[in-house]
Structure to design on (218 residues):
């Protein structure tokens, strides 16, 4: 296993995350690949909690991908208008549903190349669908994973998300990718927050890039 720069190995980082967040999992409420995919698309640049507030009524109105594929955009917008970029997102989730119906017989595909071709689906969304629903080992790099990776020196500060993903896949064992992805999200969401991270209770201060530059000696 690769050594993590400075003082902690990848295995040690995983051990700490296992202690901190043993039950980390997807927090988007879903019950099938369709509701997961739509929730992930809606979660771009907003919180899972905000998405979970609007999806019960959305999925009550459009319980299947076929229902959403034939929906009117203005109707869908009414259900999701409390989150940012709702017009674009309404267009994307309808477009996504239309193509799942027309190209994949209504089944959300389980391959990266087919998913990434669908409206509203980028690298992160495809990876989350594959990992959470289809149990394919992936590391989805969202804003939390990206920030945490850089603070823990698993990637350089100016690496893009694709490079971060590649570096994480190289450093950590494949059978841990999906678990690690959720644990890094929880770590970033609940402890190593963007502003005011709770460094007092963090096991990684000895080599953390942010701590060294912002908090050491404070
Ligand atoms: S020391 Fe602070 S900034 Fe660094 S990883 Fe821990 S919580 Fe995040």
């Amino acid at each position: 296993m690769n050594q993590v720069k400075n003082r902690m190995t990848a295995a040690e980082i995983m051990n700490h995350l296992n202690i901190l967040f043993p039950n980390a999992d997807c927090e988007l409420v879903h019950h099938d690949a369709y509701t997961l995919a739509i929730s992930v698309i809606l979660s771009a640049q907003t919180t899972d909690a905000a998405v979970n507030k609007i999806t019960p009524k959305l999925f009550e109105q459009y319980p299947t991908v076929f229902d959403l594929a034939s929906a009117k955009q203005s109707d869908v917008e009414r259900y999701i208008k409390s989150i940012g970029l709702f017009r674009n997102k309404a267009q994307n989730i309808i477009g996504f549903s239309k193509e799942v119906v027309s190209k994949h017989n209504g089944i959300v595909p389980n391959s990266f190349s087919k998913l990434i071709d669908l409206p509203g689906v980028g690298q992160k969304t495809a990876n989350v669908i594959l990992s959470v629903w289809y149990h394919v080992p992936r590391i989805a790099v969202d804003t939390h994973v990206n920030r945490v990776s850089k603070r823990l020196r698993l990637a350089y500060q100016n690496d893009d998300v694709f490079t971060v993903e590649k570096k994480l896949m190289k450093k950590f064992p494949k059978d841990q990718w999906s678990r690690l992805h959720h644990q890094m999200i929880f770590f970033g969401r609940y402890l190593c927050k963007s502003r005011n991270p709770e460094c007092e209770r963090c096991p990684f201060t000895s080599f953390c890039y942010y701590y060294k530059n912002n908090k050491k000696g404070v």
